Amino acid sequence: MSRETILGDTWLIDDLRLAQFFTRLAEVFASYKDKDHGSVFLSQKRCASILLPRTPSTLAYDQNQPTEPPEPLPILIRATNGHSKSRRNSKIKLSTVVQPTELPGFFARYAEVCKTGMVALKPRDRSKRKEKLKKRKKAAKEES
Amino acid sequence: MVFIETSQEWLQRSAQLIESKPLSTRTTTKYSISPPRAKSTPEPSSTAASKVTKRSTAPRASIELKTYDPVSGTALKYRTTKAAEVSRLILALGTLGRDMAALPKEEEQEGEDTAMVEAPDAAGEDGEKDAVGKGGKGEAPKESGSAPGGGKKKKKKGKK
């Protein structure tokens, strides 16, 4: 990733960068679609190291003044498919840097990708609601 | 290392951690699928036997959110298996993302509203309870009456 894209000078490049990230993240989720085991790891943290070189002195400075950054900082998003050690060859590592201005848009799309990707979670229990409806109808009938 | 009961509390405590250690704190989301267990679920007392067997054949997935600060060693975790919670959790990640980016705080209202809308539906544990209720019809109305307020999140009554 070049410094230019990281700093977000060109919107076109930024869009492409995020779009690419989401496409590849969706691929990672899709690769687990019919599998019965596996993990996807997503992480996020402040991306200070790009703007400030992480020398001991700047680190110490930052730790001393933790809540006073001069201006909003980008955040770093990482994703992996959890392959390590013996499966290192098939490990997928994705990362992207999201500018503060892009955050709302990013998380909206992030939510979409995660919702469509995390298919093996327990679905919402609709039978319960149906049951309740039935009961309510029944009760209404009895009353009338 | 602590597992926190509600996503709301996890969000609050994570935000505090990020505020105090903004440089080193990170939030990790782990989505993991594990093969179905051979044994039946640990609640054999449930009368919803068909439900239990159905669930045990499909792979189980869970989401684990972890906010970790390597400097102080603090780790805050929240875990769920419900698909209905995903959007709320990503929203929480977005809120934490804002904190990490050192953007000014959003109005808290937004997040809570979404939680409100979704909370009554996200009642996985109540599913079994309800299934039990189905067996005995006499009890049923009581069960359904208490259900809306008792949806997982400690919204109105702080049931859980």
Let me know the average pLDDT of chain A.
79
In the CATH hierarchy, the third-tier topology of chain A is known as Signal recognition particle alu RNA binding heterodimer, srp9/1
CATH topology of the domain at 2-34 and 50-121 in chain B: Signal recognition particle alu RNA binding heterodimer, srp9/1
The secondary structure category of chain B is alpha+beta
CATH class of the domain at 2-34 and 50-121 in chain B: Alpha Beta
The percent range for helix content of chain A is 40-55%
Biased composition (Basic and acidic residues) (chain B): 129-142
GO biological process, one term (chain B): SRP-dependent cotranslational protein targeting to membrane
GO cellular component, one term (chain B): signal recognition particle, endoplasmic reticulum targeting
Pfam families (chain B): SRP9-21
Description:
The complex is a heterodimer of chains A (144) and B (160). Chain A has a single domain (3-143), classed as 2-Layer Sandwich (Signal recognition particle alu RNA binding heterodimer, srp9/1), CATH 3.30.720.10. Chain A is 47% helix and 15% strand. Chain A contains 5 helices and 3 strands. Chain A has helices spanning 3-7, 11-31, 56-64, 103-117, 126-143, and strands spanning 38-46, 75-80, 93-98. In chain A, helix 2 runs parallel beside helix 4. The radius of gyration of chain A is 22 Å and the shape is flat. In chain A, 24% of the residues are buried. In chain B, strand 3 (60-69) and strand 4 form a beta hairpin. The model of chain B is unreliable at 48-55 and 109-160 (pLDDT under 50). Chain B has a domain at 2-34 and 50-121: Signal recognition particle alu RNA binding heterodimer, srp9/1 (2-Layer Sandwich), CATH 3.30.720.10. Chain B is of the alpha+beta class and 160 residues long. The interface between A and B is large, with 52 and 55 residues. Strand 1 (38-46) of chain A pairs antiparallel with strand 2 (26-34) of chain B.
